Fold these 4 entries.
Entry 1:
Amino acid sequence: MGIIIRTKHTQPFIPQPDDSMIICRCEEITKGEIRKAVYDGMRTINEVKRYLRAGMGLCQGQTCQRLVLGIIASESQISAGELGHITGRMPVRPATMDYIGKSTEHSEGVERYESK
Amino acid sequence: MKANDKSADVIIIGGGIMGCSTAYRLAKEGVSVLVLEAKEIGNGGSSRNAGGVRQSARDIRELPLAMYAVSNIWPTLSEELDIDVEYVQNGNLRLGKTEAHVTALTNLVKKSTSVGLDVRMITGNEAREICPYMSDEVLGASWCPSDGHANPLHTTLGFYKKALEYGATFATGIQVFGLQKVKGRVRQVVTDDGIYEAQHILLCAGHASRAIANTVGIDIPVERETSEVFVTEQMKPMFGQMLGTSDADFYGHQSAHGSFVLGGMGGLEKFTSNYYGDETHNVTLPKLSRGVIKYFPDLANVKIIRSWAGQYDVCADGVPVIDNVSEVPGLTIAFGFCGHGFGIAPAVSIALCELIMKGKSETIDISKLNYDRFAAKG
Amino acid sequence: MKRYEVIIVGAGPSGLSAAIEAAQSGLQVVVFDENGRPGGQLFKQIHKFFGSKEHQAKIRGVRIGENLLAQAKELGVKVILNATVLGIYKNKEVSVLIEKEVQNYKADAVIIATGAAENMIPFEGWTLPGVMGAGAAQTMMNIQGVRPGSKILMVGSGNVGLVVSYQLMQAGCKVEAIIDAAPRIGGYGVHASKVARTGVPFYTSYTVLEAKGNATDGSVSSAVIAKVDERFKPIPGTQIELDVDTICIAVGLSPMSQLADNAGCEMTFAPTKGGNVPVLTQDGETSIKGIFCAGDVGGIEEASSAMIQGKIAATAIAQELGYIDHDTFEEKKSIYADSLLKLRAGMFAPGSKGKVIDKTDEGYTISKSILTHGYLAESELSDFPALDTSGGEHIVIECTQNIPCDPCQSACPQGCIIVGDNITLLPKLSKEKKCTGCGLCVGVCSGQAIFLVNDSYADGYGTVGLPYEFLPYPKAGTIGKALDRSGREICDATVVEVRANKVMDKTAMLVMKVPLAQIGSARFFQPIGLESLEGVS
């Protein structure tokens, strides 16, 4: 990501006819909400994600990341490659606390630590 | 500020919640503010914490900030920022499973009540009445009914949005290397984008602050410590309290969205080779999961969606430094928040605003958070 | 902690190839795949692959998958299915969910071969039932044996859109249109042509505006498309409403690179590779020593190159762990690199993405008709080298773009067809050798671009032998219509014979009798009274 200068918007927010279109299906975030987030000052994919939850759902942005990036890019006039990406996070597929907690192999140090 | 203008009355280094909220307050007062951020707005601890808005179990030196924020700012912050910060004031339970835990909690409670905080010890059964999902293993808890939690992402970005509206400028993607004095005052910020200049500089860049302060001869004893937080799938509303445990098994809450946001440490992070990365550690998430299940068996089948790591900036004596640096005129610093800065941030920014504009904090007592308090023992 | 020398994530073409290569070198290897069956996307690829013999050209993807599995089994490669890798750590530790618990494994090297996921485009109604990825539709019909719908709009004319359109027709669906927002068809001309000649219209510079849902269950009942200007904005008044019940989206793939990101590998945004990809060395190694990526996860290509990338990564690991010496490594690597280079040549190469190419490598003008309508204009064909104008029985090769493919060359027992070593060059006809009319090349050509034409069949009549993959094969004597390259009915036609043998692997040569004047135009046979076509698989 390069330098992004953020200042107060000078024009009013202009609604568009397709603003109600869903972009992030997991969290049901619309195109209009994403455009408004950019208008409010959000610039990177992670800022928009944190502001709206777009890309925070079960698929972790696998479907909508591209679309959200496209909307931010066109609203902010910053190229999509400069807007960052949704970080791949453990677990990359949802898994229950039970399954994860039952992690059968700990490194030896941890067992020592936990049995203190 | 024009895009190529590299000066402002005040430059704030660090676009986290401290920087954003102080920029908001200063800009609202008509001060020209420029915030320099290395990555994105709220990239550090501000977006990575578990959202506690807590007064209980705090060091009494920073308790005035917490109590001020809870009494005067948090309840109306959503209206003030025009964004739902999801502030919920349903109390904080700090849980103990052993007699030793209960003793430790009791001591914490004594300290807090001595300065007027409404916090008390309750039994395991009383705790289960407040939060029915809790396991029978809980023997006792500290209970602070005026504590709560909020959404750190919305709060940080809400302050940022409002700061923009009041005319503050933010420049992200700029790496600050250090500070430079001109004629006795700190004046310049040296960056990978050249020199930026201001009358006053506020340094609040989390764990990155120490090295920057070092460039004008100030060394505050802070070090990084990795903690992790995970978030689950959306669940029906189960409990509204902020939770913690005496043994630091985990901390966190259920968010307005329905997901649980829970965090903690594995204990080994410090000793592993990737300690300073932002990667999560292999043992932490399983350990936290087991910890949560012990206290809340019903959460065993809740799916974890993602986890992340963040860096505490841990100060040697457990509370932050929030002060004007008298020996470097023009420099104000605020870091070393030790992983509990989020809840007090809206009050910290009031103190910072006053430190910058009036030379001292008048509204809130931060006198014990002075920068020159550190001395070797003995 | 349990430990393997190599852990491979993903049992698709790349992962399996890597596992085979690693096992052949003596490495102890395990493959995890989150799916219940191995093979990745290979088992739904019922079409014949391109490339050269070394790339398993002219073999259907599904058979390549079977071969890979058999080879892996023979070598004792451990493939653990329903094993979902949740995270990979810098120290090459892998957390994998197997059954009901997460197990952690260490490895000396990890190969991430997780492939890609389909892109979507948003439009009004895109979340309605009936809108799906083209790959999802392909899974439904080719794996689960379910027709995704009956009347289809395909959005996207890249190879996926074209290949899946053809397979949808083979499954008995009607493809109402293939649209693309770009002014040109994105996939191979030969793929477009085999769809176009069945009568599927192409709309280039068109986008989908809306999926309308029906009143009963809200599923798709029609699609509104519109022409777009050069900035991809819809032009008012150009809307067309299409009667479809299914909209398939084939607008590219995005690498599933989250595990590499999670491990802390350096990432980069590369639009030509499909999005966020790890930065890789030539061997496929990420910025973290010992963590490799192979296949689409490192940049979207296709299965053939993914398989080679898997082998290269495994070879590099074999050297690193001392199973092969440096010279052996260099030798193998150069063979694989050459093989990869062959696939990455031509006008559809990854490096040519987004470029407008007007001339073939040989200097022929690229057919404009094929780029906009999906079929060759007859007038354009005469410019190309494989047009035999001699009398009698002869072949016409309608292969006019530089794509990496050469099975036709070895298919002809007489040696009539010449491609040469550079497999992206267009096939030429030998001046010395004479076609015997065997038709093998017609069945072998993965692009279904070769026709056997006889202008002296009977008085006033000729025959056209065309590649045919719809079941049941019509019997000799079946009467129908001959369609031209655009799918337009041009004359009556009668099936003379349907020739198929093992080499042709279910691509039959259907020979139809047409009036002599039409042998240059007639390129498909439509039996009268047949409601839908059913394909081979």
Entry 2:
Amino acid sequence: MTTATNKEELFIVKEQDVVPLRNRVKEYGVKIGMSILNQTKLITATSELVRNLLKYGGGGRVIIESVTNGRDLGVRVIFIDKGPGIKDINLAMQDGYSTGKSLGLGLPGTKRLVNEFDIQTELGNGTTVTIIKWKNG
Amino acid sequence: MQNNLLASLKEHQNKLLTTWSQLLQANGSTDGVTEEEESKEFAALLLDALQHSNGNTDSDEFEKVYDLLIGISSSRGRRGFSPRENAQYLIAFKEAASSILSEIESDPVKLYSANLELSTLLNNMTILTFESYMKGREDVISRQIDEISEISTPVIRVWDGVVALPIIGTLDSSRTQVVMENLLQQIVDTGSSIAILDISGVPAVDSLVAQHLIKTVSATRLMGAECIISGIRPEIAQTVVHLGIDLTGIITKASLASALQTAFDMLQLTVVKRK
Amino acid sequence: MERIPILKMGDFLLVTIQVDLYDQLAENLESDLINTINKHNSKGVLIDISAVSIIDSFMGRILGNIAVMSKIMDAQTVVVGMQPAVAITLVELGLSLNGVISALNVEKGMDLLRAKMYNGDKEEQTYDDSNQ
């Protein structure tokens, strides 16, 4: 059972919102004593996902939460956009796939950086990506 | 509803303590002095709580009892008591209290309800002791895990500008992360441009371990240092080839000595024998 | 518009990134740097990223672009001071920054640039010799 203890919500509409978001996520990591390496992985994953949110979803909301699961502490970040959604989610999760002009390691690469990764998408209704990085994960 | 029989146990505190410690000694789940102090404090607090909180087991007095109990159990966990001994601690208390109750009350109905209430209370406390006992043990385990990962990844400065890291045991992903972190941090701290990863102590290299090794080499190169993998035993070379793992692009050496020789070559150093 | 300063030191350009990058800032750096290489006919670029705590795929791509673009313009790029956590994260992400040459610190990076220049000259020399 994963429960949230502390949460806040940020609206991301332009590129300049990205740096403050990364800093907020980092603060959540610092608060639970996450190692520098895991903090870096978490904010890098955040950076990748928020770029997708801006580029494909036209902006959206990001929820940051401190979560616990028994003895484990972690940070959960949820990215919610109301964009066009992803057509073929299995294809998007393959290494080397990209519709935009990036390197195409967005989603699968990001998944490797975190402990839990969940993506829900519906054509025309947007995409919600949830990631959790555990303190010792 | 508070049974006033339980409240009156306070008057028999000393007798209860004696009976309890006799029971504990009888089943051998005691270690003497520390415990006597703990037990005395616990009995005093619990009996006070029974006397003053009118059956409300969430009162401040009971909170104090629970806190103390959690402390006692986790410390018993760390002191190496077995789970059985830990459970017997409160069970013995219940027996002692129940024997005193039967001495001071003869009406079976009253005695029954007092015993029932005592049972419920102590059963809940037993669950609490178990949880904190396990927590105490888990703390020991997690501390040991930390220690193991600490001592199992020593980074050695073998030469000015050359660090070596012998890996003993299996390389899984969490271990690889610790290895990488330590190695890269040492590279930064010592300003070493060559790192040697010795895998003589790794029992087997499968495709996953190979992937971890390749990741470590890539990360080292990203930082601007070179990584040599040494200690490739014949059977490792065989499995690597049979599994079709591609190690080209990585400098591999059979022994730490030849890896060091390669490092010297890269640093344009020569070792000469004095005449 | 925020910009990252580019310093000229003889034949080399020195860039120290002191702030966390966002996409636009990184893109500006790319074009500014290439223009400056052209303006001064620089032979080498040293990018110090020791204060950068995050590099994701976009910024990684920019670094790669800079290395390749400067190479075409006959300038060598060396990236120095990458944090261990950043390096591990990049590898985990699947980004190996092909074409980017790195060094541990500014000093080693400078040595590397000079060595590259020297070797480059020597190669030209031999080429000339064989022509004569």
Entry 3:
Amino acid sequence: MSLFEATGLTVGVSGSPYPILRDVDFSVEPGEILALVGESGSGKTMAALAVMGLLPHGVTKTAGEVRIDGRNLARPDGSIDRQVGQISMIFQQPVGALNPTMRVGNQVARAIQINQELDRSAALEAAIEMIGYVGIPGPERVAKSYPHQLSGGMCQRIMIAMAVSCRPRLLIADEPTTALDVTVQAQIFELIKSLVAEIGCGVVFITHDLGAVVEMADRVAVMYGGQVMEELHADRLLDGSKHPYTRYLLESIVREVDHRVEDIGVDFTLRGCRFSHRCLLAHSRCNDFPTLEWIAHDHRLSCFAHPLDRS
Amino acid sequence: MSLLEVRELHKSFGRGADEIPAVRGVDLELAPGETLGLVGESGCGKTTLGRMIVGLSAPTSGQILFGGEDVAGRLHEPRYRSRVQMVFQHPQSSLNPRFRVSTTLSEPARLLASESAGASSSESIRETLRLVGLGEEYLSRRSGQLSGGQQQRVAIARALMSAPDLIVLDEPTSSLDQSIRSRIISLLKDIQKSNSVSYLFISHDLSTVRRIAHRVAVMYLGRIVEISETNQLFDDPKHPYTKALLSAVPTLDPKKDTERIILEGETPNPTQLPTGCSFQDRCSLVHEACRTQSPSLANLGSSRQVECFAVQ
């Protein structure tokens, strides 16, 4: 049994017959970092929001289960019971995700008070300890600052302090360093890795940067058009990936691959594989929906074109 | 001869104790048909430098020589205006959403009419649109109806309309997906091959810069700390900051055994710079001279300059 499992997640816009997430499965083990990677519109953030029960208004989960230690967190009304599962999330824009009118120490203290019964001064003390714990020098002084007085990297550390203060089982990091410089990104990556080793939580790491995947993740799930296309060990991404879309993404880093890419975006109306209208290997079978199948003990693929696939 | 030469360029914002020196004495040259990559992190002054070269911001001191003539402070004049153009990071906010593509592309000629009358002919608009890979059917579209990549093509076409010698591109691909980024980079290279325009390509994305630039300048706190031929810079960086910056970029190959250099702390406050080298507090090679004297760019080989006592 995995620490965390999302199975058959299907999410749609109210009134539309075309799902924006289709039968999405992924799982995370304790201490493991799973990367969800894909381009704009691939559904990677939507998958995280569905897990958190934070889907935007008008977007609903129509099927799927979210389990921690085998226990389903999805309530019958479609919302998610976050308290029990202890899932935390950090967001892409650290400065924007913090309350600009509140000292950061108080914000961390509040996050602590949600999960622990502490009075205000004890929570603030715990908050200062957390701020030091995420590698910020002079935590007493920083706790009294407002977000705008801190750099983006510092604000992201504060967000991480809030997220790990409850000792979560699962941490979802949605492009945590996209808004930051590379040298700061390297610091934040180190921090997340050391926290995972220490707390033993699982991580869903959302990114569009394949380099960051190889750097950070143990396993990677590649998404396109609301589908998981391929899932494999992150070290094998470069030379072991099989899906035409994964290969396309890797190649596009070094050269221009497909001149039609701007004119044909993701087509959510496709019943079959959503990459089929751009895929060079597409054939008539691709008008059906390819499910994610094991092709090796640590490798899953959703593609009819693959020779090992389906006898 | 150089197309562009920048000498001892300074720009400060604010006054007195709050004065922020954004660009602190930059020298660089750009040849016709050449692409110079300008890289560095937030707040290093790369955008301010680009804006001064386009004339959107007046230097505090220093010279901007264009074809040998000092144009600092005069770049708003139409005859210079048409020779240097700019492409911005976010095409959706740098294009007027109410304009059709045809209007967007005829604006430069209308505004610069005194110098390039007649350039607004619909034939030249169609030709430029073709050059950026868009068909005539796009002329009647509004920018809001275009994808991000198509919008950036229109922004590039607008910059090309006045037949400039130099285009300053400020993070032109940062808001685009990887696959579209690759398309735009190929496009920019093709355009350069066909009309030998020069580019100043400002970006924090080192892998994109590597693909397009002939030479790369690395900025830190308002100074160029290393400037070199592109492959030489990426294969063998010399300045300790360049090394740290390059090592911080995640690579795809898990077997690549480069050692990650994690810089301690953050970029110092530009209002309270230390005496001597501004990188001293984060540098692994720091020694006594770095705390008392300021280094300046010195030649290291024929195609590289570095501003560091430890490697000079």
Entry 4:
Amino acid sequence: MGKKNKVILPPNLPPEVADDEIEVSDEDLEFVGRNREYVGFLTKLDTKSIDRHVKRVANHEDDELEALYEKRNRKPSLLRLKEEEDKLQVDPVDALPVKTLDGKLEYRTADRSKSGDGTDGKESAMGIEDDEKIAGMMKLTKPEKRLKLKKSRKEAKKLAKVEEKGDGGEEKLHSEVLAKVEEDLSAEELFRKKKIRLAEIGLQLLENPEENIKALKELLQICDDEDQNIVKLGLMSLLAVFKDIIPGYRIRLPTEKEMEMTVSKTVRQQRFYESTLLRSYKAYLMKLVTLEKQPSIRQVAVRCLCSLLDAVPHFNFRESILASVVKNISSSDDTIRKLCCEATRSIFSNEGKHGGEATLEAVRLIADHVKFHDCQLHPDSIDVFLSLTFDEDIGKSDVLKEPVKPKKRGKWKNQDGSKEVQGSDRKKNKQELMKKTREEVSADLKAVSFAPDSKDRKLMQSETLTAVFETYFRILKHSMDPSASRSKVNAVSLSCGSGSYPLLASCLNGLGKFSHLIDLDFMGDLLECLKKLAGYSDHNDGSMQNHLSVSERLQCCIVAFMVMRNNLDALNVDLQDFYVQLYNLLLEYRPDRDCGEVLAKALKTMLWEGKQHDMQRAAAFIKRLATFSLSFGSAEAMAALVTVKHLLQKNSKCRNLLENDAGGGSLAGLVAKYRPDATDPNISGALASVLWELSLLVKHYNPSISSMAASISSMTSMNPAHSQVLFSTASPLQAFADLSTERELFKPASKAASLRRKRTREIEKDFVVMDPDQIRKYENMIDEGVLTRKFKDHFILNKGIMENERLRRELNHTMSSISLYEDYKRQKKHKKER
Amino acid sequence: MRPLDEKETAAVFEKLFKFTGPNLKVMVERPAVEGPAGDDPGRYCLRLHKNRVYYASESLVRRATNVARDRLVSLGTCLGKFTKGGSFRLTVQSLDLLAAHARRKVWLKPTAEMSFLYGNPVLKSGLARITEGVSPGDGVVVFSMSDLPLGFGVAARSTQDCRKAHADAIVVNRQADAGEYLRNEDDL
């Protein structure tokens, strides 16, 4: 508040005086004359040069202020007065040397703008949330505003006066400027007034919504303002009001029949209140939807819509809110998109608020949206599905109850039957009547009860699921269609840069998450789809160039396996084609281009967890993974080695690979020679090879990998019973994560350790050449700068040697040509002599 | 003994392709195990002898030409035989070759193995595992759970249908099984 006072109070002083002047302001001559009068009885320096005139102005101001002060006798204002005086005095003095109109004008506007800035800052400081605050200040600010206006007018007059003395010809121009200034000021004041009005109405509404419900209309009218700031403020305050007063139930307007009925006063009042609320809510929503198209107000409008959706999803007109939110769900504007996604997520996660209907609607809308845009959307719009939850136990409690019921009923009937064989019909009739009424009552109860019954919920859930999977399948289908995609690849990759299928990755994620809910009927088509996407083709002619990245294809394989595994109870199916795909994708993997985590996940789901009995295939994978781990980073290598170890443990026959004789003996099958380039793991003949990679990996610089390799190569002698004990628990994914974090922490973490180790190392001087510890130690010991210098030296030396060699070669060449020439000469001479 | 003519080759390859799929190329083009080792081991080729089709390495074929036609009983691996009607049938002897290059496989539960080896079709109840993507009419090689090839046949229903199928439903119609070595010893 202190700040505000400072800015606002200065204008407090001059008002009364100014009032007098206002009447005269138009006639400049009169104004001057009056000044003369004032000046006349104050100072006698009046008839001097223009310079003094300025001073006079100042003096006259002084007098005015003093007079005012006396009148008011207010202490705090005194200080401000003095400040004002200083300012005013300074003003003309500064203005003097410039003399031109422009210069003076500039000065003035600058001064004013300063105060304007102050108010602006204040406005922004006061958010919509402190509506009350605004209301509290209202009384202060209104008079202040007026004062300020007057003061600036006076200033303008003063300026005019000075100008008049300089040259009277510019009067006209000046008045124009004045008009403009006034206009600006009035607009500012208007803004203020409106803001205050907004706050007032808001407060009223919050205080007593039933009585002041009509005020909503006024609020809505304010939102029609041409000033965008006002519109924004109006929208936000309406949002706050609606959030507060919207009831916890859905309003149903009374039918005409009901209207005709005579009702009590309170009911009528309530009806009026509800209908007004509903009407203005509708108007507000319509306004939001229309304003949403204007770029400047768009964010505010979308924010309002989203928070409404979040706060009151149960209320009327949810459909229209949802529609506009979903429309913006893949907006190119990050903030808008995030807002919309958050709103949709909250719909999905807070189903209790609206009983699940909104979820279904939202999912359907998104599905339509995806369909309409031909799957060219931002992945966020599909990622929202991940926060959906499907309760599988909805019907179960009822199902458990139901079988109990008929038994009871049967018992009852039996008992009744046995007892009432001779009973009268009246009793039976009575019972039937009772039963009927009971049924009626329960039906009524169901209709009235807030929570939807489990059957409805189940239906709703299954429909939601259908819509979700429909979207997913649509995306998959779209990604499979190369002709449609090719044309769009350019446009999309230019705009969003996330490849031609922006939705595919999140779609696969979603499928993975909900794989246990997929209907068995879909499964065949789904797997077919995934197989094609993963790049498998029946004819290995390479005609179909796959347009998906390696990570995406790996993900396809993973999803296929997850789908299969989650439905394993039906039938144990061997996904041979996907194994083939993984086998080939291993070759295409590049550590920097592709996501290592996906690879590790693929290894985990397909090889590490999968029940694999096919010996040839296992052997092929073991061999390829071992080769793979030789050529890639430590994290990938570790994941691969963990898988290899697991495979070797499971398939005891594959341990032949660890033996040191090539050929594989009788196990090798029909293929006698290992073919590393085979596309099918079954015919690669891996059993005929030897895992020589392991002995190289034992010398790996990373200690964990070398120890892992050593442990694998020592598995030869292990008997099957023993192997169960040593079963490793770490999955490839875990291993990958461990090592990739270790890689980041490698340097700093091992520094301290290396210092400790140094001493022990110094004692035992002889060490293995490839000792990983030693290498690590050196890695840390060597300073970066030293290294650069040494490299530099080395390269200079190398370059020198090369240069030397080159020169030597040239020299030799020249020498030889000279000698040749001499030879030639000699021969010529020889011939001549002859 | 003579090389197959075009029609016969088509008939043989058609039957083989049902089982091997694209792997047929590998099967035909694989380097021979016998013969001069090192520089050029030669390839395998198909020969027709007494209505039977044999799969043998080139070197073996060359050596077999020394034997008189009526004296030659067999050479290489017998794949199958042409019936009197002119159609081609695969026989059990081709099992190893098919198993190595098979695309669709079915694994039997240990309890169902014997029944299959006695010449019965594979039922759903005996099915332990099945390759994904089998469609009715595909050639399927039948394995035991320890990956030992037992025989082959034609799929009666797709993988999808197998899920919903009844326990007594036939999954694979048998064409040949290893039990024939005992049962039909004379005919082979």
